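Handout, page 2. Input:
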Amino acid sequence: MSVEITKAISDQVFGVWFLLGAALVFWMQAGFAMVEAGFTRAKNAGNILMKNMGDFCIGTVTFIAIGFSLLLGEDMMGLLGKPGFSIFSDYAHFDWSNFIFNLVFCATTATIVSGAMAERTKFLSYCVYSAIISGLIYPIEAHWIWGGGWLAEMGFHDFAGSCAIHMVGGIAALVGAKILGPRLGKFSYDREGNVTKVNAFPGHNLPIGCLGVFILWLGWYGFNGAAATSVEQLASIFVTTTIAPAVATVVTMVYTWVKFGKSDISMTLNASLAGLVAITAPCDVTDAFGAIVIGFVAGLLVVFGVWFLDYVLHIDDPVGAVAVHCLNGVWGTIAVGLFATTTAPGNDELVGLFYGGGMKLLTTQLIGVAAVAAWTFVTMGIVFSVIKATMGLRVEKEEEIKGLDSTEHGLASAYLGFSIIDVSNTMLMDVNENTDLGNDDYEAATPAEKAIAVPVVDHSVVSASTGIYKVVIITKQERIERLKKSMNNLGVTGMTVTQVMGCGIQKGAGEMYRGVEIDATLLPKAKVEIVVSKIPVSEVIETAKKTLYTGHIGDGKIFVYGVDKVVKVRTGEEDFAALQDVE
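Output:
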């Protein structure tokens, strides 16, 4: 009796955990949204959020209508489940838990494509794609693996979806991005149409991208662990699901550090997800050593994948979805045939090649990968080609340049109320050695050196009758605090500071982003505007020059204008009187 009670309690506990795991997988949609938004440009952030929301909600509708029955309905010749509507006809006996669990997995498959096709896809066309993959393409191949289909009968093993979800989503992303074409300006071409250069488009918000990675990692414990049937198996899955992404992250961090001179943040974040994708299929059958090797390979594979798409295939994938999900989905599925061991709790049958199991399991895994890949390539190629030919897949050039937030959703910006500068193709650069004047001491510098480093352009001669001057200073952002302090010491307490972009001879040397050199076309600068009357303008200019001078061309530039009229709106005071509270 006590054994029966214990089993009943255990079944109830794991039934609750199964649903909590589904909730964690649902929460991963937020992670995907954050990663994709952070890795793309600010003008498309709202569109990214809409697509991720649409993936789940549109997917829910089509999964109810047809997807769930195709996946888990009565098996028909090992190819698909029998279509049905038991959720409506027999709700009292419906398998609610399996429905919600498989629904959130289905939504994950669909949303992988969003990032690879970001910034240039019509929203309506994307919604159509999302409905089709959720209602037809994913459920059929998932039936082969989890619904009692022909791959399940062969002994194919994909515990949580390296193949069924991630490889399928990654291949769909690859096909979609290829048919869609690259973003404007991603590649430079010669007259014959050959790619001559790959251009970097840095993500506008890597902190949000990093937050998304942590959300996904947390959700992955439910993704991999929800189907565990014992505490021991669940704990082992948690261990392997932690080891593989951690090792992958370290490998990519070190590799990019060695290759590019600095560790690449975005690719390191990609590596965490790559390790998670790779461990998803074998998480329940491998041990710690296997997880380490799987993570190590994943860390190298994701860097190779990003490079291969950019420089060999010339396919534009803004977030690295293909490298993360497609390549590592394939790798993780194959890894089952290499690293499966009966020392893993709950695994009494599967043994991989490296643990003495021979080629049988590995061969089965390779057959499964080939079959599912072929299904996805063919069906997604048809889907995207038909969408492109009928309703169009890509937005117009003018819409892409303006940004999809505005043109597709009527949203001026996803960051209304915030000051955002889109620094695509721009980053802070190292100082160009050709700008060094050889003397960084302002007092010892010659008048010529001072004039070259911080030139002054005086436009005030025409309208100096009021004795009021406007001084505009353009300089590096890192000099602003020192400039504010020196102006305050001079007696100037009012100034306007804005962020601007600019370049001159002091453009600097390019940095690397995702293995691509960033053009030093524009640099973030600061513009300071000061209006003075009582304080001599010559003292303002001299103080500014002394503060900004570092002995390099491009330290700053000063413009002086005469001011005809100043009016303080609050009091109505004019000219000299209007400025007495700011100097």
